[in-house]
Specification:
The longest helix has 26 residues. The radius of gyration is 20 Å and the shape is globular. By secondary structure, it is of the alpha+beta class. The chain has a 4-stranded antiparallel β-sheet with strand order 1-8-3-6. Helix content is about 45%, strand content about 25%. α1 crosses α2 and α7 crosses α8. Bound molecules: adenosine-3',5'-cyclic-monophosphate. The site of adenosine-3',5'-cyclic-monophosphate has 15 residues, from β5, α3 and α5.
């Protein structure tokens, strides 16, 4: 039998943030945090909560979102296996900037801020990698602002579908085929619109010959054409 730390160190080794750590550093990291299992839909924390832990997703998916007083939700990002979150409170000492909820059965590795700070001082490659990923997230956030300001809902949906097609699609008979990774309600929350509008726009895209739909399976004719919809 392996000690739990050895198992956790093995999982942390796959996390890009920790990819250049030595075995000793990985074991060190695996000994300072705890693994937590989360049920589907379990809330991890709310925007405004004091932040005390940094999280790495070992398995599953976590939605990062904001909610207005009427309960309307906007999803900032859906993070998956080997992503991290909770770094903003760690870095600026302020409250949580957004809420986090597991959207599938999920397993996270959680490290108290003080422990992670101490670890960062011992492993200088990690803060640099973290900065690179934060810069990537800022680029994505800029893209979201640009899309919100400049594109129609149909254009925003088309870009999201094109991104999924590029990331997860497989080529089949000259088309790109992929499954919608989330229900339409969540897609609507990512685009700042309603579920009904998403369904309507999807039908329009189909009728205009950009894609075909069968249940959750999407077949796209040309990813580049989708990206050009204003
Ligand atoms: P923190 O503020 O501690 O808690 C909420 C977390 O959501 C935040 O840290 C980040 O890890 C994450 N987060 C907030 N905004 C974004 C965003 N635009 N893109 C990706 N992750 C985000």
């Amino acid at each position: 039998m392996f000690a739990p730390e050895v198992v956790v160190a093995g999982m942390l080794r796959r996390v890009p943030l920790f990819s250049v750590l030595s075995d000793a550093e990985l074991h060190d990291l695996a000994s300072v945090g705890t693994t937590r299992r989360l049920r589907k839909d379990e809330l991890i924390f709310l925007q405004g909560d004091p932040g005390q832990h940094f999280f790495i997703i070992l398995e599953g998916k976590v939605k990062i979102f904001l909610q207005d007083p009427r309960g309307r939700e906007v999803i900032l990002v859906v993070l998956g296996r080997e992503d991290f979150f909770g770094e903003m409170s760690l870095l600026d000492g302020k409250a949580r900037s957004a809420s986090a909820q597991a959207i599938l059965e999920t397993r996270v590795y959680s490290i108290a801020h003080e422990e992670f700070y101490r670890f960062l001082a011992r492993a200088p490659s990690v803060p640099l990698k973290m900065l690179r990923q934060l810069s990537e997230r800022l680029r994505k956030a800029d893209e979201v602002i640009e899309n919100l300001a400049l594109l129609s809902v149909k254009g925003r949906l088309a870009r999201l579908l094109a991104d999924w097609g590029l990331k997860d699609g497989r080529a089949l008979g000259g088309r790109t085929v992929f499954r919608l990774p989330m229900p339409k309600t969540q897609i609507a929350q990512m685009l700042g619109t309603s579920r009904e509008t998403v369904s309507r726009m999807m039908t329009e895209l189909r009728d205009e010959g950009f894609l075909s739909l069968e249940g959750n399976t999407v077949r796209v004719d040309g990813i580049d054409r989708l990206r050009q919809i204003p």
